[in-house]
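dude i think i finally got it to work??
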Amino acid sequence: MKCYICAMSDRELLDEFVSYIGGIRQLSKNTQKAYERNLREFYEFLEMMDNTLADFSLHDARLYSQYLRDEAENSEGSILQKLTTIRTFFSFLMKREVVEDNPFDSVSLKKCAKRLPSVLSESEVKELLAIERETFLDERDHMLFLFLYNTGARISEALSVDIKMIEFDERRIRIKGKGGKTRFLFLSPYTVKALKSYIGSRDEYVRAKGGMDDGALFISSRAKRLPFSSAHIIFTEYQTRLGWQKEFTPHTLRHSFATHLLERGADIRVVQELLGHESISTTQIYTHVARPRLKKIYTEAHPHA
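look at this
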Protein backbone atom coordinates (compact mmCIF):
# COMPACT_ATOMS: atom_id res chain seq x y z
CA MET A 1 0.00 0.00 0.00
CA LYS A 2 2.75 2.46 0.94
CA CYS A 3 5.45 1.32 -1.48
CA TYR A 4 5.18 4.61 -3.39
CA ILE A 5 6.56 6.59 -0.48
CA CYS A 6 9.61 4.32 -0.37
CA ALA A 7 10.42 5.20 -3.96
CA MET A 8 10.13 8.97 -3.63
CA SER A 9 11.75 11.49 -1.33
CA ASP A 10 9.84 14.22 0.47
CA ARG A 11 11.26 16.75 -1.97
CA GLU A 12 10.07 14.70 -4.94
CA LEU A 13 6.61 14.37 -3.43
CA LEU A 14 6.47 18.11 -2.85
CA ASP A 15 7.61 18.84 -6.43
CA GLU A 16 5.04 16.43 -7.86
CA PHE A 17 2.28 18.04 -5.80
CA VAL A 18 3.26 21.53 -6.97
CA SER A 19 3.22 20.26 -10.57
CA TYR A 20 -0.19 18.73 -9.92
CA ILE A 21 -1.79 21.93 -8.59
CA GLY A 22 -0.24 23.91 -11.45
CA GLY A 23 -0.89 21.52 -14.30
CA ILE A 24 -4.05 19.63 -13.35
CA ARG A 25 -5.79 22.11 -11.06
CA GLN A 26 -4.28 25.11 -12.90
CA LEU A 27 -3.82 27.24 -9.80
CA SER A 28 -1.98 30.53 -10.19
CA LYS A 29 1.79 30.88 -9.74
CA ASN A 30 1.28 32.86 -6.54
CA THR A 31 -0.98 30.13 -5.12
CA GLN A 32 1.57 27.49 -6.08
CA LYS A 33 4.28 29.43 -4.23
CA ALA A 34 2.04 29.79 -1.17
CA TYR A 35 1.30 26.04 -1.17
CA GLU A 36 4.99 25.21 -1.48
CA ARG A 37 5.89 27.63 1.34
CA ASN A 38 3.21 26.12 3.58
CA LEU A 39 4.44 22.60 2.84
CA ARG A 40 8.03 23.50 3.64
CA GLU A 41 6.88 24.75 7.05
CA PHE A 42 4.93 21.50 7.49
CA TYR A 43 8.03 19.46 6.64
CA GLU A 44 9.96 21.40 9.31
CA PHE A 45 7.30 20.33 11.80
CA LEU A 46 7.62 16.70 10.67
CA GLU A 47 11.37 16.85 11.22
CA MET A 48 10.95 18.43 14.66
CA MET A 49 8.49 15.68 15.63
CA ASP A 50 10.75 12.99 14.13
CA ASN A 51 7.68 11.86 12.19
CA THR A 52 6.89 10.72 8.64
CA LEU A 53 4.03 11.29 6.23
CA ALA A 54 3.08 7.59 6.42
CA ASP A 55 2.84 7.63 10.21
CA PHE A 56 1.14 11.02 10.57
CA SER A 57 -2.02 10.63 12.71
CA LEU A 58 -5.09 12.64 13.71
CA HIS A 59 -3.38 13.43 17.02
CA ASP A 60 -0.41 14.81 15.07
CA ALA A 61 -2.75 16.85 12.86
CA ARG A 62 -4.38 18.46 15.90
CA LEU A 63 -0.97 19.13 17.39
CA TYR A 64 0.09 20.81 14.14
CA SER A 65 -3.00 23.00 14.25
CA GLN A 66 -2.05 24.06 17.79
CA TYR A 67 1.54 24.60 16.63
CA LEU A 68 0.39 26.99 13.92
CA ARG A 69 -1.69 28.92 16.42
CA ASP A 70 0.94 29.19 19.14
CA GLU A 71 4.45 28.49 17.92
CA ALA A 72 4.15 30.12 14.52
CA GLU A 73 1.86 32.89 15.85
CA ASN A 74 -0.24 33.06 12.69
CA SER A 75 -3.48 34.93 12.16
CA GLU A 76 -6.63 32.82 11.92
CA GLY A 77 -6.74 33.50 8.17
CA SER A 78 -3.17 32.26 7.77
CA ILE A 79 -3.89 29.14 9.85
CA LEU A 80 -6.92 28.40 7.65
CA GLN A 81 -4.79 28.75 4.51
CA LYS A 82 -2.01 26.52 5.84
CA LEU A 83 -4.36 23.76 7.04
CA THR A 84 -6.20 23.85 3.70
CA THR A 85 -2.87 23.36 1.94
CA ILE A 86 -1.92 20.35 4.06
CA ARG A 87 -5.40 18.80 3.78
CA THR A 88 -5.19 19.10 -0.02
CA PHE A 89 -1.69 17.63 0.04
CA PHE A 90 -2.81 14.59 2.04
CA SER A 91 -5.75 14.06 -0.35
CA PHE A 92 -3.18 14.03 -3.15
CA LEU A 93 -1.05 11.51 -1.23
CA MET A 94 -4.09 9.26 -0.72
CA LYS A 95 -4.72 9.18 -4.47
CA ARG A 96 -1.08 8.22 -4.97
CA GLU A 97 -1.42 5.53 -2.25
CA VAL A 98 1.31 7.15 -0.18
CA VAL A 99 -0.99 7.30 2.87
CA GLU A 100 -4.15 5.39 3.75
CA ASP A 101 -6.22 8.26 5.12
CA ASN A 102 -6.26 12.04 5.53
CA PRO A 103 -5.81 13.01 9.21
CA PHE A 104 -6.74 16.61 8.42
CA ASP A 105 -10.26 15.60 7.37
CA SER A 106 -11.16 15.59 11.08
CA VAL A 107 -9.48 18.93 11.86
CA SER A 108 -11.90 21.84 11.71
CA LEU A 109 -10.96 24.53 9.20
CA LYS A 110 -13.65 26.89 10.45
CA LYS A 111 -12.26 30.37 10.84
CA CYS A 112 -12.51 31.43 14.46
CA ALA A 113 -12.69 34.88 15.95
CA LYS A 114 -9.27 36.11 16.95
CA ARG A 115 -8.85 35.50 20.65
CA LEU A 116 -6.50 37.13 23.08
CA PRO A 117 -3.72 34.92 24.40
CA SER A 118 -3.90 33.40 27.88
CA VAL A 119 -1.58 35.19 30.31
CA LEU A 120 -0.48 34.32 33.84
CA SER A 121 -0.41 36.99 36.50
CA GLU A 122 2.91 37.55 38.25
CA SER A 123 1.52 35.80 41.33
CA GLU A 124 0.53 32.78 39.21
CA VAL A 125 4.06 32.62 37.80
CA LYS A 126 5.40 32.60 41.36
CA GLU A 127 2.93 29.84 42.27
CA LEU A 128 4.07 27.78 39.29
CA LEU A 129 7.76 28.17 40.07
CA ALA A 130 7.23 27.47 43.77
CA ILE A 131 5.92 23.92 43.23
CA GLU A 132 7.94 21.48 45.34
CA ARG A 133 10.48 19.41 43.42
CA GLU A 134 11.31 15.87 44.53
CA THR A 135 12.77 14.17 41.44
CA PHE A 136 15.00 15.15 38.54
CA LEU A 137 11.99 15.29 36.22
CA ASP A 138 10.34 17.74 38.63
CA GLU A 139 13.51 19.82 38.43
CA ARG A 140 13.49 19.62 34.64
CA ASP A 141 9.87 20.81 34.52
CA HIS A 142 10.70 23.74 36.81
CA MET A 143 13.71 24.66 34.65
CA LEU A 144 11.57 24.49 31.49
CA PHE A 145 8.95 26.82 32.99
CA LEU A 146 11.61 29.23 34.26
CA PHE A 147 13.47 29.19 30.94
CA LEU A 148 10.38 29.95 28.85
CA TYR A 149 9.21 32.73 31.15
CA ASN A 150 12.68 34.26 31.48
CA THR A 151 13.56 34.23 27.77
CA GLY A 152 10.21 34.44 25.97
CA ALA A 153 11.33 31.57 23.73
CA ARG A 154 8.99 29.43 21.69
CA ILE A 155 8.86 25.84 22.97
CA SER A 156 10.44 24.55 19.75
CA GLU A 157 13.32 26.98 20.27
CA ALA A 158 13.79 25.93 23.90
CA LEU A 159 13.82 22.24 23.00
CA SER A 160 16.45 22.84 20.32
CA VAL A 161 18.94 24.32 22.81
CA ASP A 162 22.12 22.33 23.48
CA ILE A 163 24.16 22.99 26.61
CA LYS A 164 27.15 24.05 24.49
CA MET A 165 25.05 26.89 23.03
CA ILE A 166 24.75 28.65 26.41
CA GLU A 167 27.15 31.59 26.83
CA PHE A 168 27.17 31.75 30.62
CA ASP A 169 29.53 34.74 30.88
CA GLU A 170 27.42 36.78 28.44
CA ARG A 171 24.17 35.38 29.88
CA ARG A 172 22.72 34.62 26.47
CA ILE A 173 21.99 31.87 23.95
CA ARG A 174 22.19 32.29 20.19
CA ILE A 175 19.30 30.39 18.57
CA LYS A 176 17.86 29.92 15.12
CA GLY A 177 14.20 30.85 15.33
CA LYS A 178 11.24 30.95 12.98
CA GLY A 179 12.22 31.22 9.32
CA GLY A 180 15.83 30.35 10.14
CA LYS A 181 16.48 33.80 11.59
CA THR A 182 19.12 34.05 14.30
CA ARG A 183 18.58 35.95 17.54
CA PHE A 184 19.72 35.91 21.17
CA LEU A 185 17.79 34.68 24.18
CA PHE A 186 18.91 36.60 27.25
CA LEU A 187 19.17 35.10 30.74
CA SER A 188 18.83 36.75 34.13
CA PRO A 189 21.55 36.09 36.76
CA TYR A 190 18.99 34.04 38.71
CA THR A 191 18.26 31.87 35.67
CA VAL A 192 21.98 31.36 34.96
CA LYS A 193 22.46 30.10 38.51
CA ALA A 194 19.43 27.83 38.20
CA LEU A 195 20.69 26.50 34.85
CA LYS A 196 24.09 25.56 36.28
CA SER A 197 22.44 23.65 39.12
CA TYR A 198 20.01 21.95 36.74
CA ILE A 199 22.75 20.93 34.30
CA GLY A 200 24.61 19.21 37.12
CA SER A 201 21.51 17.18 37.98
CA ARG A 202 20.85 16.53 34.31
CA ASP A 203 24.35 15.13 33.74
CA GLU A 204 23.97 12.81 36.73
CA TYR A 205 20.62 11.61 35.39
CA VAL A 206 22.09 10.88 31.95
CA ARG A 207 24.98 8.94 33.47
CA ALA A 208 22.57 6.93 35.61
CA LYS A 209 20.60 6.01 32.48
CA GLY A 210 23.80 4.85 30.82
CA GLY A 211 22.90 6.13 27.37
CA MET A 212 24.57 8.40 24.85
CA ASP A 213 24.45 12.09 25.76
CA ASP A 214 23.35 14.19 22.79
CA GLY A 215 23.93 17.43 24.71
CA ALA A 216 20.28 18.57 24.75
CA LEU A 217 19.44 20.96 27.58
CA PHE A 218 15.95 19.55 28.15
CA ILE A 219 15.73 15.77 28.19
CA SER A 220 13.01 13.14 28.56
CA SER A 221 12.70 10.37 31.14
CA ARG A 222 14.82 8.27 28.75
CA ALA A 223 17.61 10.88 28.83
CA LYS A 224 16.99 11.87 25.20
CA ARG A 225 16.02 15.29 23.85
CA LEU A 226 12.56 16.19 25.15
CA PRO A 227 10.02 15.83 22.30
CA PHE A 228 7.66 18.65 21.33
CA SER A 229 4.59 16.51 22.08
CA SER A 230 5.83 15.55 25.55
CA ALA A 231 6.35 19.19 26.48
CA HIS A 232 2.65 19.91 25.85
CA ILE A 233 1.69 16.92 28.02
CA ILE A 234 3.79 18.36 30.88
CA PHE A 235 1.85 21.63 30.73
CA THR A 236 -1.50 19.83 30.77
CA GLU A 237 -0.43 17.86 33.83
CA TYR A 238 0.60 20.99 35.74
CA GLN A 239 -2.58 22.81 34.74
CA THR A 240 -4.56 20.01 36.41
CA ARG A 241 -2.21 19.93 39.38
CA LEU A 242 -2.62 23.66 39.98
CA GLY A 243 -6.37 23.59 39.37
CA TRP A 244 -6.16 26.35 36.76
CA GLN A 245 -9.18 26.83 34.51
CA LYS A 246 -7.35 29.14 32.10
CA GLU A 247 -5.42 27.80 29.14
CA PHE A 248 -1.88 26.80 30.10
CA THR A 249 0.46 25.88 27.25
CA PRO A 250 4.15 26.59 26.56
CA HIS A 251 3.03 29.69 24.70
CA THR A 252 1.22 30.97 27.77
CA LEU A 253 4.63 31.66 29.33
CA ARG A 254 5.79 33.45 26.17
CA HIS A 255 2.62 35.59 26.30
CA SER A 256 3.24 36.26 30.00
CA PHE A 257 6.87 37.24 29.32
CA ALA A 258 5.81 39.84 26.75
CA THR A 259 2.83 41.17 28.70
CA HIS A 260 4.77 41.61 31.94
CA LEU A 261 7.56 43.46 30.13
CA LEU A 262 5.05 45.88 28.59
CA GLU A 263 3.26 46.36 31.90
CA ARG A 264 6.56 47.36 33.48
CA GLY A 265 7.30 49.93 30.79
CA ALA A 266 9.35 48.07 28.16
CA ASP A 267 9.27 49.58 24.66
CA ILE A 268 7.21 47.50 22.24
CA ARG A 269 10.06 47.54 19.69
CA VAL A 270 12.36 45.96 22.27
CA VAL A 271 9.75 43.30 23.05
CA GLN A 272 9.42 42.66 19.31
CA GLU A 273 13.16 41.97 19.07
CA LEU A 274 13.16 39.75 22.16
CA LEU A 275 10.28 37.66 20.78
CA GLY A 276 11.79 37.43 17.31
CA HIS A 277 8.70 38.86 15.58
CA GLU A 278 9.29 39.97 12.01
CA SER A 279 6.39 42.42 12.12
CA ILE A 280 5.45 44.83 14.91
CA SER A 281 1.78 43.99 14.23
CA THR A 282 2.35 40.51 15.68
CA THR A 283 3.71 42.03 18.88
CA GLN A 284 0.86 44.54 19.18
CA ILE A 285 -1.57 41.89 20.39
CA TYR A 286 0.20 42.09 23.75
CA THR A 287 -0.77 45.74 24.10
CA HIS A 288 -4.41 44.59 24.00
CA VAL A 289 -3.70 42.03 26.70
CA ALA A 290 -1.89 44.54 28.88
CA ARG A 291 -4.34 47.44 28.39
CA PRO A 292 -7.05 46.48 30.92
CA ARG A 293 -4.43 45.51 33.47
CA LEU A 294 -2.56 48.77 32.88
CA LYS A 295 -5.79 50.67 33.47
CA LYS A 296 -6.27 48.78 36.73
CA ILE A 297 -2.71 49.64 37.80
CA TYR A 298 -3.31 53.29 36.92
CA THR A 299 -6.58 53.37 38.91
CA GLU A 300 -4.93 51.81 41.96
CA ALA A 301 -1.65 53.70 41.83
CA HIS A 302 -2.24 57.26 40.58
CA PRO A 303 -3.00 59.82 43.32
CA HIS A 304 -5.74 61.49 41.29
CA ALA A 305 -7.37 58.21 40.18
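The chain is about 60% helix and 5% strand.
im so relieved honestly
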